[in-house]
Design brief:
Protein name: Response regulatory domain-containing protein
CATH architecture of the largest domain: 3-Layer(aba) Sandwich
Domain Response regulatory: 5-119
Order of helices and strands: EHEHEHEHEHEEHHHHEEEH
Modified residues (4-aspartylphosphate): 55
Organism: Methanobacterium subterraneum
Shape: elongated
Structural class: alpha/beta
CATH superfamily of the largest domain: Response regulator
Helix content: 40-55%
Strand content: 15-25%
Keywords: Phosphoprotein
Largest sheet: 5 strands, parallel
Number of domains: 2
Radius of gyration: 34 Å
Length: 283
């Protein structure tokens, strides 16, 4: 555990030395012992410890709670050391988000397991944040539009609307609206005439949200002059996700191809008719 650095903040020199020796016996590194809050803050920025053991009551202008507020900016876990008589201070300390409390006098085993639990919790939270950050980056950089919704039903449990809960950047680009103007809004607020122009949209999405059965369909939105392929799925009843792909170019190409085929057939039929008429005249 020599690679784990612990900053000790304790104004009682004898107790501080005892804590330092105990930590080192566990294999931890103690790069500094601070007796005052100002020194603790300076050393925290300098050393960047993995954990801080902080006495709530300190000599000087700053107490442990005030010091913790500053060190918290570095995302370093803190364990408070406190005496039974400091109950009021403990309540105030709760607002700094400490990773634990050790009530004096505490045993070496309590200290050891308190530190291990705090470090484990801190590492797990950092991994979770990193994972969320990676997910959010992937989410926002998807080429297709993504949105997450909650379905709204009437008294007979029939889908009548849905609310936008989350969208990515691609979705903003697709419908040319900003996230702040979409999140929390109903589809009927964003597109007031949606039930007239695309009455099946809410029905299709509602079926997915209520049954959990995925669906893929194509739809033209007059409001955006676009064709979209919409994939819908649900992992929780009452909620559903949609993936929008702009297929307007593909549909235009398909229509152009169909039009070309119609013209070709018309030309071919006219040629055949002319040929047959020519044969009849010869005969």
């Amino acid at each position: 555990m020599g690679d784990i650095k612990i900053l000790v903040v304790e104004d009682d020199s004898i107790e501080a030395l005892d804590i330092k020796k105990t930590l080192e016996s566990f294999g931890y590194s103690v790069p500094h012992v601070a007796s005052k809050g100002e020194d603790a803050i300076r050393k925290a920025y300098e050393v960047m410890p993995d954990l801080v053991l902080m006495d709530i009551v300190l000599k000087g202008d700053l107490n442990g709670i005030e010091v913790a507020r500053e060190i918290k900016k570095l995302d370093i876990p803190i364990i408070f050391l406190t005496a039974h008589s400091e109950e009021g201070m403990v309540k105030k300390a709760m607002f700094t988000g400490p990773y634990g409390y050790l009530i004096k006098p505490y045993s070496a085993i309590e200290l050891k397991y308190g530190i291990e639990l705090a470090i484990y919790k801190s590492n797990a939270e950092k991994e979770l944040k990193a994972s969320e950050s990676k997910y959010n980056s992937l989410f926002d950089n998807l080429l297709n539009g993504f949105a997450y919704h909650q379905i709204i039903v009437d008294d007979e449990n029939f889908p009548v609307d849905f609310v936008f809960l989350r969208i990515n950047k691609a979705f903003e680009r697709l419908i040319k609206l900003k996230r702040k103007d979409i999140i929390g809004k109903r589809i009927t607020e964003l597109i007031p005439d949606i039930k007239d122009t695309n009455p099946e949209l809410i029905e299709f999405c509602g079926q997915v949200a209520l049954t959990g059965e995925s669906n893929v369909f194509e739809m033209y939105f007059e409001q955006f002059k676009k064709f979209y392929s919409i994939t819908t799925y649900s992992e929780e009843k009452g909620y559903f996700a949609t993936i929008f792909e702009d297929i307007s170019q593909r549909r235009i190409a398909e229509e152009s191809l169909k039009e070309s085929e119609r013209r070709y057939r018309t030309i071919l039929e006219n040629v055949q008719d002319a040929y047959l008429r020519g044969i009849r005249k010869v005969v």
